[in-house]
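Progress note, project year one: complex with adenosine-5'-diphosphate.
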Amino acid sequence: MQAGDPAGMYTRLLWPALGLTFCAGLYRLKWRVWESQVRITMARLVMKFGGTSVADLDRIRNVARHVKREVDAGNDVAVVVSAMAGRTDELVRWCREAAMLHDAREYDAVVASGEQVTAGLLALVLEGLGVNARSWQGWQLPILTDDAHASARILDINGAELIKRFKEHRQVAVIAGFQGIHQATGRLTTLGRGGSDTSAVAIAAAIKADRCDIYTDVDGVYTSDPRVVPKARRLDKIAFEEMLEFASLGAKVMQVRSVELGMVHNVRIFVRSSFEKPEDIDPRAQPKGTLICDEADIVEQQVVTGIAFSKDEAQISIRRVQDKPGVAAAIFGPLADDNINVDMIVQNVSADGATTDLTFTVPAADYERARNTIAKAKAAIGYDRLDGATDVAKVSVIGIGMRSHAGVAAMAFKALSERNINIRAITTSEIKFSVLIDAAYTELAVRTLHSLYGLDKA
Ligand code: ADP
Ligand code: ASP
Ligand code: MG
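Model obtained:
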């Protein structure tokens, strides 16, 4: 073969070229196998960000970096966002100003708009960071609900479309929380205040997420509201049942329905802070936060887990009501018909055998309505006078351990009396008890009970 012979040159180049192609093919194959193995071990996550976490563009950029952190770790991510802090309050106010007795369907059309803005903005910022993302509104997914406008329940969510997009495009879904659609009427619905938590848990159930992370302005669930009790401790874990009580007794860190859904569908809910810098989070370390889990997963069960309180209560007392069969039905029947939830009920033992006093609580927002309902039913009930108070608060002590411990409530009554705090009403159940007191003593009562049950941090 002579030098400069083109055929010889091709032969000389052919073997190395074939070798290189073979190596590249092998490398690509290895990469695919590695990638598929890693993707099997990677997670599908829902990340929910509340109002303070998306309060302005800077905070939305911070949220986007949290999302990118999870995407870069190889996870499939659906994000659920609330409206910017204060926005829903403003929209609600506008509805009231526009028409005091507004149509709930139009109220929903107005208040659902806050989440639409944040979903779009977050998708924009994510795209800017090079993350493939798109926004979804409730009706687009769709998130189907019933037609109980302003407090609708989720009936069904199309999770398959999101999963398809994870698989085909690794696309992050940015979903507007709090909103859905009623299929038959095609009207927008909202899920009640704090409803983005419920959107997030429902989506987690629909896409069979490995975890639903609730990012908020505190780094977990505490033994009591850390803004009121500086000595409150963060709980590593809390049982679904306890969280349900916490939420329904005033701790607004999670909406009640979201906890119910999590319990039914066994969603791993993890409450954590969005204020932690994404760059400071070590992806290999256990993140700081609270896992809401089954009771069986909690090793060290305390007797009392925490103290909740609510100032959204009102008390109504019916004086000198007839002490005869059928009176309770005459009072609580019309209240139920008017969709007013009655919570604590106390009936005094009749002194004269003919009349008695009956006290109960309703949500503060329903106070005037409840008084009207009772006044309208006066002839059927038969009573002397109607008294009421809105400056009351309900303080509740919660703990699964109370099931097997007697005397837990008695300790509280003694401690409160030593502080001169008068108890207006009491209710108890298996894992909690509540006392109704003057609102002015709320903080004192909560802190007193927090110390009493050994919940203060060292
Ligand atoms: P988001 O806007 O993220 O949905 P929320 O304001 O609805 O946040 O809920 C978080 C707030 O819940 C906290 O700022 C805290 O004051 C309050 N909170 C009440 N009780 C508790 C508790 N036991 N643990 C943690 N936070 C609590
Ligand atoms: N933006 C709604 C509200 O303020 C829903 C939510 O934040 O979860 O109630
Ligand atoms: Mg909330």
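Residues 29 and 35 are 10 Å apart (CA to CA).
The two ends are 89 Å apart (CA to CA).
No further modelling is planned for this target in the current period.
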